[in-house]
């Protein structure tokens, strides 16, 4: 029983990481209709900004409020970079899907190369708090605190995104702007500002994912965001492009499947995840919670 509890909770922790990666992708695609292949760069920016802040920013560190300050710095850095990318590169390319793909793929490659040029290609130790290295006994299972942190953080991000989209004026404007941008513009509302905010939120979520990945794996590397982005896209497709709640369910399915299969059939977890993706695409191409022709929470 303790093994089942351990696999369940660590699987939910892995699912939380995938959701944090995929939530920004889902939000940006579902609401701004942009397939952003540079999303992994925002993860790396958040992780490296936090790593830098922990040793260089006054008041920041690897413990207590100092670590919180470093995390805030990393999340803000991810949001700022995402906003700049939207303003400079994406805004002129709305409704030009192929151009968006080419630009974001190029930006992703260039961003990884820039990080390697500045800090090198080798992984660097991430300043994780001491409590993140400990375990908590739950039902006889020693569950890593880092997995619990991932699961709780993902749940908080999900709740925040749903509340933002459903109950705030800006969230309603964003959803209306996707459905009929010309009508919203005719009402005197600048939809472009709302879409910039969407990118900022997506960048912040991605940066948080990069930071918590650093806490989970104890290292940060330039290509870390790119490798996690693969699973992010898988989760978004399975859940339904543009569905925030569908993405959460898909992340849980992928994380738990991967964790249980890797334990009982070592090395087959990734294969089972790809098989799940194939089955969903064949049976329900729009995803578990996706709907054709519209964005939704």
Description:
This protein is mainly alpha-helical and 297 residues long. The chain has a domain of 203 residues. Helix content is 73%, strand content 4%. The chain has 11 helices and 4 strands, in the order ααααβββααααβααα. The model has no long low-confidence stretch (mean pLDDT 86).
Topology, element by element:
Elements: H1 2-32, H2 39-56, H3 64-90, H4 97-119, E1 124-125, E2 135-138, E3 141-144, H5 145-167, H6 169-179, H7 181-186, H8 191-217, E4 219-220, H9 224-239, H10 244-264, H11 269-283
Antiparallel strand pairs: 1-4, 2-3
Largest sheet: 2 strands, antiparallel
Strand and helix order:
HHHHEEEHHHHEHHH
Terminal CA distance reads: 36 Å
Strand order of the largest sheet: 1-4
Helix content: over 70%
Mean pLDDT: 86
Class by alpha and beta content: mainly alpha
Rounded radius of gyration (Å): 19 Å
Question: Which stretches of 5+ consecutive residues score pLDDT under 50?
Answer: none
Query: What portion of residues belong to β-strands?
Result: under 5%
Shape: globular
Number of β-strand runs = 4
Q: What is the number of helical segments per DSSP (H or I, 4+ residues)?
A: 11
